[in-house]
């Protein structure tokens, strides 16, 4: 445990914000003091319905949810990623976005990513119809940020099915990519691990994927929080337990791999990808 520097929390969040925050802090309390970066799943602070998300949506840098996370980051001296929470849109103040926020160990916001791909699907599970675009405005920006354990690209859940986003993150220098998620049990069982491994292999990045597990009203999530290295190997996995998965990030293997197999240099679609990056970055 001496060399552990990253923790991925697996949660069963619900509509009770105090309970969710207590669950997060309880897991963080048990981490070794070598941990520098902690990642939480999608809907970590609030897993509820559309109206509840709208009521609790905050402007970036303001509000009780962000203050609670800021306090935890400061208290434990960690960088803390909120997998996704409702924030007021940067493009349209009348709308909200599903946003991932990264706080540093002083409680300052270092990065924000607004989910680009909306989960608008109809599948044969307990919930049936999912229509995120009725709740959220989709994001317009990609996000890559330096952290104490490496350069981190940010994605959220359904983004995992769109390899172009991950290629754009790699083009911006990502070594690690966060994929906080609340994958449904049905789709997670079939697709979660294969997609994570594919994105890791394609981009020669370490994928960090904290997940929700359990029952959340009419929704049931798959769990299986995991980390995947750039060769596509699962470093560690937490199938069903509501607790933290810890690991030591070593980026050195990525550098050798990228020299041996130059996927970025060989990408024939790179000019189109570059124009996407220019369009989506500030």
Topology summary:
Elements: E1 6-9, H1 17-29, E2 37-39, H2 50-56, H3 64-76, E3 79-88, E4 96-103, E5 109-114, E6 120-122, E7 129-131, E8 144-147, E9 150-154, H4 163-171, E10 176-178, H5 185-203, E11 206-209, E12 213-216, E13 219-222, E14 225-228, E15 234-238, E16 244-247, H6 252-260, H7 263-266, H8 270-280
Parallel strand pairs: 1-2, 2-3, 9-10, 10-11
Antiparallel strand pairs: 1-16, 3-4, 4-5, 6-7, 8-9, 11-14, 12-13, 14-15
Helix pairs in contact: 1-3, 4-8
Task: Give your account of this protein's structure.
By secondary structure, this protein is α/β, with parallel strands linked by helices. It is 30% helix and 26% strand. The chain is built from eight helices and 16 strands. The strands form four sheets. The chain has a six-stranded mixed β-sheet. Strands 8-9-10-11-14-15 form a six-stranded mixed β-sheet, with helices on one face. A two-stranded antiparallel sheet has the order 6-7. α1 runs parallel beside α3 (64-76) and α4 crosses α8 (270-280). The relative contact order is 0.16.
What's the oligomerization state? Answer: single chain
Query: Strand order across the biggest sheet?
Result: 5-4-3-2-1-16
Look at the structure and give the mean pLDDT.
Answer: 95
By secondary-structure content and strand pairing, the structural class works out as alpha/beta
Helix content: 25-40%
Main β sheet profile: 6 strands, mixed
- Count of runs of 4 or more consecutive helical residues: 8
General shape: globular
Helix/strand order? EHEHHEEEEEEEHEHEEEEEEHHH
How much is the radius of gyration in Å?
17 Å
- Our measurement of the CA-to-CA distance between the termini, rounded to an integer number of angstroms, reads 39 Å
Strand content: 25-35%
Number of strands: 16
């Amino acid at each position: 445990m001496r060399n552990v520097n990253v923790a991925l929390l697996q949660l069963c969040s619900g509509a009770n914000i105090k309970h969710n925050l207590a669950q997060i802090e309880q897991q963080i309390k048990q981490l070794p003091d070598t941990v520098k970066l902690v990642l939480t799943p999608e809907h970590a602070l609030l897993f509820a319905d559309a109206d509840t998300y709208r009521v609790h949506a905050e402007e970036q840098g303001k509000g009780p949810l962000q203050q609670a996370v800021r306090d935890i980051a400061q208290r434990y001296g960690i960088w803390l990623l909120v997998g996704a929470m409702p924030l007021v849109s940067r493009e349209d103040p009348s709308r909200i976005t599903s946003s991932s926020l990264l706080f540093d160990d002083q409680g300052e916001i270092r990065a924000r990513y607004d989910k680009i791909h909306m989960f608008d699907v109809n599948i044969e599970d307990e919930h049936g119809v999912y229509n995120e675009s009725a709740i959220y405005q989709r994001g317009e920006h990609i996000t890559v940020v330096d952290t104490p354990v490496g350069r981190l690209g940010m994605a959220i859940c359904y983004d995992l099915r769109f390899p172009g986003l991950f290629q754009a993150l790699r083009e911006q220098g990502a070594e690690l990519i966060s994929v906080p998620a609340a994958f449904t049990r049905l789709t997670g069982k079939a697709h979660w691990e294969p997609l994570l491994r594919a994105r890791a292999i394609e981009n020669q990045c370490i994928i960090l994927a904290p997940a929700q597990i359990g029952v959340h009203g009419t929704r049931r999530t798959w769990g299986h929080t995991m980390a995947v290295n750039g060769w596509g190997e699962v470093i560690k996995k937490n199938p069903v337990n509501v607790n933290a998965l810890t690991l030591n990030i070593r980026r050195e293997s990525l550098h050798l791999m990228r020299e041996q197999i130059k996927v970025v240099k060989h990408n024939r679609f790179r000019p189109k990808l570059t124009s996407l990056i220019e369009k989506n970055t500030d």
